[in-house]
Amino acid sequence: MKNIISTLIQQELRRQQLELELIASENYVSLDVLNAYANVFTNKYSEGYPWKRYYWWQDWVDRMELLTQYRALAIFDLVDEYSSEKEERFVDSSFSIKELIDFVGQASPVWWVNVQPLSWSPANLAVYLWLLEPGDTILWMDLNAGGHLSHGFKLNASGIFYKAVFYWVNRQTHLIDREQVEQMALEHKPKIIVAWYSAYPRRLDWSRFAQIADKIKQKYWYKPYLMADIAHIAWLIAWGELDSPFPWFDIVTTTTHKTLRGPRGALIYFRRELEKDINRWVFPGIQWGPHEHIVLAKAVAFGEILKDNKVWWKKYVKQVLKNAQTLANTLIDRWWKIITNGTDNHLVLMDVAWSFPELGLDWKVAENTLEKIWISINKNSIPFDTNPPLRPSWIRLGSPALTTRWFASEEFMQIWDIIDTALKNYNNSKVLNDLKQQVLLLAQKFPLPYEFNK
Ligand SMILES: Cc1ncc(COP(=O)(O)O)c(C=O)c1O
Asked: Is 258 a residue of the active site?
């Protein structure tokens, strides 16, 4: 009898190996990160935090979690003089847990990080439970302008328990309308303002949000908290060449599984001066026993970013950017409409409905067509779309996953050629079949780093 579990894994692996992944929020972990998931920390209950656990025998859990925190702070350059040699002390039993806590604290005097959240959405909730009372107001970007479903949408706890108000982008430029953010903030007096999104291809001026918070303080005598959700752009900030929210914001949250190429999970960074105690709202506020085996896999992923002074990471990030820009430029050359006419990051929003109205395309036709040729993309709501939300005009494409497979600009140009031809011939099964063969050949040329039984 076939082993059912191994069949399931092999079939999913086969799918991942053969398709071209352009969903902007997906990526592939390295073999080291993948192997790191399977470790014996999974056997241990460790409610609490280093030196403050509910059960005994936590010495190695504490050391491991502190190492993960140290690396998590280091990837965003929040520790003074990170060096991998200094990490030796986490496995040196002549250093006590208290000494290690002090060491991380001294290395990062301004910021602290909770590495336990199982995912971003619960981490998000922990922040609100920490800082707000039910019914308090939060200011987010509207879902239809590039925000995320967990940003105050009625289906999510954030929209059920808190009053959500939204800002938009400018109708002509599709860039954040700073004046409107300020106007909304002054009108609604939010306790938290959230910046960064799921579908915004341009840079953000973080300092502008700090100015808005100051204006509220002048007018109403309180300062709203500023929270950055950098789930999509954490990789660019870790690169260190794009503006960082850390100098301006109070709380920064991110997923670990998108561009950071780690295991599924999240991080909450917060200024120590705010430490009313966010930690208490992660545990016991929203979750119980931490998944310490995943915390360890986070340390492995962060170690890959920090390796050799980020040399490898910078090479990867530069290529992600180059590939996204190649995508945007090639599509523009083929007369497709691209929101904001380009991108500063890894994602490109492409108008499939109105670039060539005579084709009768929308996201559904586009998604089905690309699925037939083994290319994976996702639909996206986008500002001022005249199509209804369930049939939006746009699709979102991203370059991180294929760049992990070391597709370079040349291959990306070929992919955009394939997409262009497929969408313009979506009724022609012969053309689609030829394109599928091209896709499969490309995918096999750049295999995933996992063991694959054909
Ligand atoms: C900006 C942003 N925040 C949060 C999330 C949700 O993260 P998670 O799936 O870890 O809850 C996403 C995922 O799509 C996202 O794009």
From this structure: yes
Answer for the pair 271, 248: CB distance below 8 angstroms, yes or no. Answer: no
Q: What is the pLDDT of residue 68?
A: 98
Minimum-distance ligand 1 atom for the alpha carbon of 123: 11
Residue carrying the six token digits 């530069």 = 318
pLDDT in tens, 2-45: 699 999 999 999 999 999 999 999 999 999 999 999 999 999 99
The answer to the question of residue 453 being in a domain is no
Dihedral sign, Cα of residue 101, residue 107, residue 109, residue 111: negative
pTM of the model: 0.95
CB 305 within 8 A of CB 313: yes
Q: Do 268 and 314 reside in the same domain of the chain?
A: no
State the CATH number of the domain containing residue 172: 3.40.640.10
Tokens of 21: 């992944």
Mean pLDDT of 138-157: 85
Q: Any residues with CB less than 8 A from the CB of 268 and at least 6 apart, and which?
A: 113, 114, 117, 123, 126, 127, 251, 252, 253, 278, 282
Same domain, 292 and 198: yes
Exposed / middle / buried, residue 359 (Cβ in 10 Å: 0-12, 13-18, 19+):
middle
SS3 146: coil
pLDDT value at residue 153: 84
CB of 156 sitting under 6 A from ligand 1? no
Cβ atoms 399, 323 nearer than 8 A: yes
* Ligand 1 contact, 346 CB (< 6 A): no
Q: What's the pLDDT score for residue 353?
A: 84
Q: Which two tokens stand for residue 182?
A: 């300020």
Q: Which domain, by its residues, includes 332? A: 310-445
Instruction: Give percent of the chain above pLDDT 90.
Output: 79
pLDDT digits (tens, 9 = 90+) for 58-73: 999 999 999 999 999 9
**Model confidence pLDDT, tens digit, residues 295-304:** 999 999 999 9
Q: For residue 255, which of 73, 143, 115 has the smallest C-alpha distance?
A: 115
Q: Is 203 a catalytic residue?
A: no
Ordered DSSP codes for 373-425: TTEE-EEE--TT-SS-TTS-SEEEEE-HHHHHTT--HHHHHHHHHHHHHHHHT
Task: Confirm whether 19 is a catalytic residue.
Answer: no
Extract the tokens encoding 113. 């990080």
Q: Could you tell me if 269 and 380 lie in one domain? A: no
- Is residue 46 situated within a structural domain? no
Query: Is residue 57 in some structural domain?
Result: no
- Give CA–CA dist 181/169, Å, rounded: 9
Residue 244 Cβ < 6 Å to ligand 1 = no
Q: Please state whether beta strands 266-271 and 225-229 pair in parallel, antiparallel, or not at all (unpaired).
A: unpaired
- Look at residues 269, 284, 307 and tell me which one is the last residue of a structural domain: 307
Report if residue 99 sits inside a domain.
no
